[in-house]
Amino acid sequence: LAGPASPPGLAPPGWRVPVDCVRANELCAGEPGCSSRYRTLRQCLAGRDRNTMLANKECQAAREVLQGSALYDCRCKRGMRKELQCLQIYWSIHLGLAEGEEFYEASPYEPATSRLSDIFRLASIFSGMDPATTSRSNQCLDAAKACNLNDNCKRLRSGYISTCSRELSAAEPCSRRKCHKALRQFFDRVPSEFSFRLLFCSCKDPACAERRRQTIVPSCSYEDKERPNCLDLRDACRADHLCRSRLADFHTNCQATFQSPTSCPGDNFQACLGSYAGLIGFDITPNYVDASTTSITISPWCSCKGSGNMEEECEKFLRDFTENPCLRNAIQAFGNGTDVSVAP
Amino acid sequence: ALGLYFPRKEYLENVYIDEPAGTPLLHIHALKDSREEGAHFHLCQNRIISRARSHENNWFQIKENTGLLYLSKSLDREDFNMLSVGNWMPLSKVMLYVFLSSHPFQEKECDSATRTAVFLSLINATAPACSSLTARQLCFTEMDLSFHIKENKPPGTFHQLQLPSVHHLCQNLSISYKLLAAEGVPFRYNESNTSVRVTQHLDREERERYELIAKCTVREGLREMQVEVPFLVNVLDEDDSPPFLPNGTDSADAVVEFNRKEGTVLSTLTVYDADTTPIYPLESSRRKYTGTIITDDPWISEMFRVEHIFDEIHFSPNGSQVRGTRHEYKLVLNKSISVTEHRSFQLDVLVNDTEFQGPERSVMLHFNVSILPVSIQFSNITYQFTVNRNAERFAQIGKICIENCMKFRGVNITYKLLSPNASCYPVSILQGREDKYGSLYVNDSSALRRPECKEIQYTVQATDKQSRKHTKTLLTVVLEGTLLKKEEDCPDSCAISKHRAECEECGGLGVLTGRCQWRQGSGKGITTNYSTCTPSIKTCPDGICDVVEGRDPAVCPQDCTSGNIIGGHGKGIGNLGIKSGHGICYCFPRQNCYCEKDDVKEQLCDDVCKTVI
Q: Which of A42, A87, B156, B395 is the S-S candidate for B391 at Cβ 3.0 to 4.6 Å?
């Protein structure tokens, strides 16, 4: 594949595939002008006070020179080699600009360009069934079977399940850290035709919905003794480059909008589901809150209790999970095996 | 200038290509701290931030006195491409900051002034014709009509319903607004300039949320369209309520007796406050609401501490619910207290709402602390145990425990046997790291078999580690039973036997009467009640690898194994032992365990089978 084919209506004309930040950093290191300016800018941004930084002449000059370099448009890919390093470079430039001001941050990841229909095509080859006709069976069970027939999926799935259900002591039911790591490996390395089917299968009865809720072993990866405040959880997530990036990606791809019929940005369900799956294995891990078959409610393990004057902001953050028409439509479309028709 | 603030967190508007200079974009309002204040708006760092870049702002300006943001220069396609570089989403957003001051702006104030972010969506098209816009687009922006107003502040205008850009563009349309509200809400809509005003100072402790409806009517010739959207006002809290005690309770008893461990919560007192206390960020809220032990006794400040937790509760002052805070102050042992300590005193804790401006900002809590001594002694009886002469090494005979020992926490009692003067010495005592009791077990089974050993007297001593206090009692071990003949070919571990018959005819390490015991399970799926062969059903398997079983892996691998378990099973706590198994579980000590269903009940080959062969 020679670069992702941009679906119509998604990328503005003239948009080119950006270089990844690791490569951009190498390019910059090769030029003495660029590398010294980049060092200066990083020092400017390392301090606390961004306003002073913006006013500083030397910092301004460094930024203006760097705006012409590849570093300013670089992006990262989900699950790429050196993903963390790439994101560190990305945030080292972006943090200084709008940190803390923006409720929604722009994603450092390249836009997802495949469509749900690509997954359905592949999935039906693997399972030998047309997903549209399997509505009467237990889709979640079928998804587990399909995963077990694939060596890679089976290995990584049993890997996270055994890690997440290993009891350490009476006080510590599992190692959450290791469980999260294993879950991230699963969702990064297993193709979405397997992982999405496990995560977003559609259900007609509670047993199926319970299996769907249990997919990520919530007793270890999701639930906790106490429910923290959502803004606290968001802060913790933003302190970590990887988590921050996944959250920004979720906000970029699943933010509901009035401007498209599906409520999703660019009507791209695949991008929303992908960035949802990308949050699993972090502090902000979302999951189904119950085994209801009629209404799908998703939430991270947090509440807005104790928000004080920030309650409005907290509710807004939480609603992007619990009452998000884009996310809900995307999950339902996946379960029904439907996708928005892409105009030719 | 600190009293001025924006009633919205951020602002949003669309900008189209080639809109003429002078086009008004949006109105920004500010609310005041005092009536005399004026509001001045300014774009301090005259920069626009788009994606990762910042650009010189050549296009947008704000009227210092009215807060009207407008286009000072038309944005052409070239400008648009420059500002949306690196953006792939259908909408390019740029951001700029608007600053606020109470007097005409001087550049040096920019660092300290309050600011808000304005987001402008750059639309890659020229402004649409008014006829192509829906009523929703003509009346409201995509942003929710949601505002926050601080309590206890003077009234003022905080919003204008009419969209300046639409009003400018579509002058031949008649767009009018109405604000639908219940009787008596403190907001007024002014039809002449479509502005909304808060008419009096608000009190969050009375009501913290107002839900109104903004209604918009668009008339175009004879056609009339209407849109309604929610109009929400949240009242922001400030610390204007003092702490108070529920039911006036300001004292509680705190008794230290058997539980003397560091970290024990002795007692809790509660303080309410009608103000909210954010748990985010947690530490700063803790610092704002302090609880301090008032004492000049160094011993008290060393032995006790106060822990403060708080959570949100609801008050209903007049039908509507408002949030408040419950603070809990817990008196906690800072160190384990010695068993000999005996005193009582009143411990005072001063709770201080540091941000409340008023005389009643603090309350005093009183804990009536009594520290009772506990005695280290055995109950009046002497111990007597009978041991079968056929018992094997590691057979568990009984437990030794001083009075109330199971209630103790933070008291370390160690048990030991003072050796008898006889040559018979078959039993020993062992104690696990966390155990409050001593386990008496057979240590030398050959002494049991010797006929001269019949009744052995021991002295048991229990010692408290911290105070070195100790106590003694007598222990008699009576040997009984006649020696059984040992079966040939028996394994040394009961757990190896897979069938009831071979289990019950053999002995093994840990058996009490010379024979292993068979536990018959329920046989349904993977169960904690699996079938297995054990030295004593009372202690093995019970899900706990106790200190005696832990001495030798052959005693009770069902509780203690860390090796592989083959077949359907669930592991025990800390990956030790078989918590649940399928069918019969048996183990080869230091090797694998197996759990399997014993299906082969009938003979392998019956008469019919033989004839076929």
A: B395
